[in-house]
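[Q] Does anyone have a clean structure-token version of this?
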Amino acid sequence: MVSRRPFYIAVIVLYVLGIALMLYRHIAFEVPWLPGELRSVWSLEAKVEFDADGGPATVSLAIPGTQNGYTLIDQAAASPGYGLTFGTKDNANRAIWTIREARGHQELYYRADMLSDPYAKVLLTPPEVVKPLFKEAVETAMRQLLDEAKAESADPFSLTQAILRQLQDKQLNVELLKEHKTPAELVVDLLGMSNVPARVVRALTLEDGRRRQSLTNYVQVFSANGNQYRLFSVEPKPSSANPLLLWEYQSVPLLDVTGGSNSRVTFSIIKKQVSVARALSDKFQNTELLNLSVDALPLEEQALFKGILLLPIGVLVVVFLRVIVGLKTSGTFMPVLIAVAFIQTNLTVGLLGFLSIVGVGLVIRSYLSRLNLLLVARISAVIITVIGIIGILSFITYKLGLTQGMKITFFPMIILSWTIERMSILWEEEGPKEVVKQGGGSLLVAVLAYLAMDNGIIQHLTFNFLGLQLMLMATVLLMGNYTGYRLSELKRFKPLVDELKK
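[A] Here you go.
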């Protein structure tokens, strides 16, 4: 008989290492155990890409600073081989990279940590009002639009709203004006004709875990006394409820590249929870210590790992419910992938989307079974059907104004297709009762996994304490060693219990 001692030693070692890593992270870096003890810090990373010409190159990027509601607590850049300076130009903060010789595709990174601070107040100087000069036909059209907007307004802010309503109309004058400038520039020019200070600014929508985002143009309009301002979106679609951070707010170029071409900037965003003392310091107190955490990676990878590190939690739920409880599921880890999709949508929308896709897919699959197709062709047809169903549901929910419904595209299409195939075969071989049992079990496991993965405390622990992953591994190994009765099998002994009671 093979000794189980090495197995139990390995499990104990995993638990000890996991606990030690978590304690090290907590003590050395002052990361608290609970998310309620933290302050919110938005880590923003700008990724600059361009193709160098082979000679000297200079890259100048507009960068944010402390502003209303946000305090800049740290900034850094990753640019091997480049010289880096931080300066100002035209009253705008800029990061400037320089290099003697650069060839091929180049990638530069700038990172800023912004503390959510309701007490942060910065007095912005209103821009000078410059009355634009246009051709007579264009000026006539602008005067007409401005007169109509003034009749519906009482102050600079209401005037801006009236101008935006006018620009959204499909009138001939509006189309003529849009041929000369962008909507944001038109709003600024129209306000300038009314002696209202305004400018075009670029803002970043703050949403945790987002990658490869771009800036959005807004119009910053100042009050008559210049002490207050408001941001107005020029897009006809409703604005997001997520907070905004002004990245460039002096109406200067976002990126200047000399010695290169095909330049672009993308942004990654992640929300961190840190202690107040740590949030107000520029760096960790013990920077020489080994930082065994995901936050040592670039932000784009951090945003990716924030979701990946939750998967072991879902796996733990699946192993417990299948090995200990004895629930049957359609596929081993399909419920975990469905739970991940629920996180991207929400539980209600996710359940409705899952049931709709699987229900319609089963009906279509039953028709395909009558055609006696080969397995590969049948699965391919089901995959295309699932994609079509998801597309139709996304379109319908968008038209109904249910923006959460469009996120059902996060459902794993291939996994759903195989689920439909297995359920259809199971229906033919063992009947609808077994389909309901396994399908219901899969859905129950997915919901429980979602509730565990969506918990704020669990998300905090998995992201900040990598040692937890070792403990999860040890727990899974222990449950995998279990060979006793499942809890669902204990009902077989109920007649025996009733007999003993007599």
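[Q] Thanks! Anything notable?
[A] The two ends are 43 Å apart (CA to CA).
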